[in-house]
Structure formats: C-alpha cells, structure tokens
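DM from R.C. (forwarded with permission)

"hey, sorry to bug you on a friday — could you get me a structure for this? deadline for the figure draft is monday and I only need the backbone to look sensible"
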Amino acid sequence: MIAPLLIQRLVTAYKRFRYFTAAGKNLVVKRSAEFRLVSHAVLEVGDNVTIQDQSFFQLTMPEPKVFIGNNTVIGRRNIITAKNRISIGNDVLIGSDVQIIDHGHGMRRDTPIRLQKAEIGTVEIGNDVWIGAGAKILVNVKIGNGAVIGANAVVISDIPEYGVAVGSPARVVKYRE
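My reply, with the result:
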C-alpha cells in the first residue's frame, strides 16, 4: 500500500509539471482538481499555495494568465476561468464553491447572445483577502487589500481596501478594524 502523503506528493508533482508555468515551494494540488488550459496559457503560483479537491481552472483563448500569490488557499469546488488576466494576491483565503471569472457574454439586442463575442476584462484580488463560500467575482473587478467578501456575494464592482462586502450585488457594509 502506498502512503496517502506519498500519493499526494506524486499528484502535485505531476500537475505542477503538466499545468503550471511557474510554481513556488510547498504547492499542494489535490487529486480531483482539474485544469483545462490552452497551450500558451500562463498559470503561476507562489509559495505555500493549496488547491483543494474538485477545483476547476479553465484558461482559454485569447491570452489567459492566472497569477496566485504566496500562502493562498483555493477552496473546494472553486471555478477560476480566464480569457485574459486574473491576479490573486498573497495570504488570500477562498472558501468553497467560489467562482472567479474575467469575462462575460455580450448582451446587445441586435444579435442573439449565443452569437456575440465575449466581453473580456480582468480580475484583481489584493493581499490578505477572505472570500466566503459561494461568492462570485465577475469581470473587471478589483478587490482591495484586506477586504472580506461575504458568503454568496456577487461582486460586480470594485471593493475598497478593508471593505466588508455582502449581498447580490455586493455592497460594502463596514470596514475591518
């Protein structure tokens, strides 16, 4: 019998080699984490990053880049999908079932939605951020350092540093002390 820790190390080593363009020390990628990347995608993580089970990374056309800082945890069943750029800072805790998306569908009235090109932007998440379970972080959003995003919040506009945002759409209700 192979020890579970050895299996975890082998899984991480394989996924590091297969999917990451750069990875720091002490990366942990759980066995059921899934990655779908175009050949020119950039996926970089810092030191002490953990990607939990059933997380899904999709980096697709035209120029996808995802950067994750040091000491960051990506919770279970997260979806991170990039067509352009997603940046997640250091010391970020992301709860389970969170979605982070840097693009959306066009919604002009003169063309069926399925025929419209994607509206592509960026997502920037600062350092020391906590994102609660089930939150959605959508295109062209910047979350400032030290912010807290409540469970199931839908973030469609910028959140200032140390802001605590809740609701759908997310609104700042107070600031960290």
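R.C.: lifesaver. The chain has one helix and 22 strands.
me: no worries. The helical segments are 4-19.
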